Amino acid sequence: MKFVYANSDLKGAEFVLIGVPDESGSHSSRKGAKKGPDAIRKVATERCVFKRNGKISLAQVSSGKIQKKIYDYGNIPKKKISQIIRTNQGRIPIIIGGDHSITTEVLSCFPHAAVIYFDAHPDIISSEKRYYGSVLHDAPVDLKKSILVGMREPETEELATLKKVGLQVISPQDFYEHGLPWVWKQIAQKTKGKKVYISLDLDVFDPSIAPGVSTPVPGGLDFNQVLFLMKRIMKQRQVIGFDIMELNPSYDQDQRTAHLAVKLLLEMIANST
Ligand SMILES: [Mn+2]
Predict the structure, then answer these.
(1) Residue 87: which residues within 8 A CB-CB, separation 6 or more?
(2) Does residue 107 lie within any of the structural domains?
(3) The total number of structural domains that make up the chain
């Protein structure tokens, strides 16, 4: 099944949607993240397609119509990611996972990118490599120009590394303490003048609205907080690619997390400039 909004051939595409049904880099006892990409496509088809007078009508977003040219690559093996991204320069890749270590492969194509990393965890473990807990340590990222949003459950060694490398962290409590406009200001200042890659682990959301993840942590962000930020990022920064990772349909409830992922994906596409 292809993504129902895929409306372009590869040649004319502005965005290429790439599914990576792989969880080999996950250490979670909750298996199922490899089923994430297809769950996203399925929910989009179930929810967003209407038939009007024999014609297909697609749901749009609050901010308008999705007018971008999108090509769905289908699902690819993890080891093919960099090759496919490199042969599609000029098109913005959207990666849907799969476990978060897939992002390391993606970022290998964008050295020195500023990364806006939405995650409950810092994923900056240095004592182990190439798994979902070491993405920001393994990837060739400009950490001084990157920012971690929604973090609330680091390991002890990660706290030391965060301090050492100077990666700015915004916790969910900071949203309450300083407010959303302040959070946006931090992101905007940090990434000023940089090309930006956005990586989102669905565990950044509160598990009450996104239970279908491999490592849920209470006290997460709500949807509209993240959407507020994404709209600004997509409009005001040059976004070179983004991903939505760690959907785990085996632990989802009423497809809640898959629905949320689809909504976010559509809003991000619609708001990109
Ligand atoms: Mn993660």
Answers:
(1) none
(2) yes
(3) 1
